[in-house]
Amino acid sequence: KIIILDFGSQFTQLIARRVRELSIYCEIHPFNHLPEFDASVKGIILSGSPYSVRQTDAPHFDFTPFHGKLPVLGVCYGAQFLAHHSGGEVLASSTREYGRAHLQYINSDNPLLKLIPANSQVWMSHGDTIASIADDFEVIASTDSVKVAAYQIKGTQTYGIQFHPEVTHSIDGKQLLQNFLVDICGCQQDWTADSFVETTIAELKEKLGDDQVVLGLSGGVDSSVAAVLLHHAIGKNLHCIFVDNGLLRKDEFQSVLDSYQHMGLNVKGVDAKQRFYDALGGLSDPEKKRKAIGRVFIEVFDDEAHRIENVKWLGQGTIYPDVIESVSVKGPSATIKSHHNVGGLPDFMKLKVVEPLNTLFKDEVRKVGKALEIDPNILGRHPFPGPGLAIRILGEITPEKVAILQEADAIYINNLRSAGVYDQVWQAGAIFLPVQSVGVMGDERTYENVICLRAVESLDGMTADWCHLPYNLLGKISNEIINNVKGINRVVYDISSKPPATIEWE
Ligand code: XMP
């Protein structure tokens, strides 16, 4: 594997993605919390950073243990860090170097630059520049304005590059990473979805033996893939619980339950609708609604978990972005997670935790799901918030409002599917607004509620743009909702992006 030491750059996760796209396994670790460097580690990549090496509180670590022993590739800050601490000089650039540049000089005999043509376009993003280097450094690539765009420390497999190979604007960035990882580090490109499935199932078998595991399914991609992996490893000893909180999409509980059963999972569907509606009664504050739903879910799940004898483990669909420790520059103590006080927790939370997906990014989870032949309808589904329709009904929840929203939402989503746009949209849903407005239907005056349609494009939900759905499609959906859903006489479309709006309305 490859270790990526993170100095806090926004690009660190992207480096990891690129390494994995080359079918090589890598892990991100904060620079101030070093992992164990056993024989499985074939090389190290040092990330960029928002800091300058010239700042007194800049991230610092002792690289002497690796120097000359393992191949190292410093990227941006990583390159400046190595240069600065090896007798070179790093200064502020006269102009901030940002954007496209071209490697006018390339030492094409250098293994790092194999097959990279002269003049190759690279992406720069830095405020500092390496002004001079120590005698044992050799410049292997330069641009017009950056002499030390890439270097090697002579007689070692330590390299530094000032540009960002992980960004697609660096046209030959992938080739450079491949040169480093395969030729210099000697990595095999054998980390694929199929190999992940095979090794993970074997590891789970070994780890869990004959133990019983309980896992909560949500209908989403992560918990479904985690369940199928565990099922392949331990079969009926995996007990899945799928709770109907009364806040799912129309008919979703039954159809998802059917597909889980079809996959052979040992799954129990629990109808807890009324418990959730009771807990939500009278609440209109979004955070209070979220808390109530979280609390009832834990109670219901705990009750169900107690029905399983001898359960030892809690299975979870946690994925890698949730476990990557973020870099803290305030010293090592700040990165250590606080331990939960187990005293007051429900019993299932005291179980040992097994998280088979905690090394994977979201797109990798989907690939693993595909390798496991999971229903494409489950793998391709839009994200759906845990509190479900409760945060898409503004204000107080009643079963009647849920039923109205489910009908409108089903018309919306079915139309997105039949128009062939569902897969281009990252997330879509209907929202029940607490607004009544006047309408006419036939000769009658109506005074009914408004449904808002929301559809966004996004990569990870952190930022989002509203989708430019075709007018004729929006018109068709609006007509169908108003003609078929009693209680709705007006449909609007949300044209706000995130930020400053959020995806959900609550
Ligand atoms: P926002 O509304 O913050 O949503 O732009 C970003 C993403 O998070 C989802 N979301 C939630 N998911 N529990 C969840 O499990 C929640 O309370 C919650 N609130 C928002 C939202 O659907 C979107 O994908």
Automatic annotation (TrEMBL):
Its source organism is Mucilaginibacter arboris
Gene name of the encoded protein:
guaA
Which keywords accompany this UniProt record? ATP-binding, Glutamine amidotransferase, GMP biosynthesis, Ligase, Nucleotide-binding, Purine biosynthesis
Q: Where does ATP bind?
A: S218, G219, G220, V221, D222, S223, S224
Q: What is this protein called?
A: GMP synthase [glutamine-hydrolyzing]
Ranges for domain GMPS ATP-PPase: 191-381
Q: Which SUPFAM superfamilies match?
A: Adenine nucleotide alpha hydrolases-like, Class I glutamine amidotransferase-like, GMP synthetase C-terminal dimerisation domain
Q: Which domain of life is it from?
A: Bacteria
Which regions span the lipid bilayer?
Answer: none
On assembly, the entry states: Homodimer.
A molecular function GO annotation: ATP binding
Q: Name one GO cellular component term.
A: cytosol
Q: Check the record and name the Gene3D superfamilies matching this protein.
A: 3.30.300.10, 3.40.50.880, HUPs (3.40.50.620)
Q: What is its EC number?
A: 6.3.5.2
Q: In which pathway does it act?
A: Purine metabolism; GMP biosynthesis; GMP from XMP (L-Gln route): step 1/1
Q: What InterPro entries does the record tag this protein with?
A: Class_I_gatase-like, GATASE, GMP_synth_C, GMP_synth_GATase, GMP_synthase, GMPS_ATP_PPase_dom, NAD/GMP_synthase, Rossmann-like_a/b/a_fold
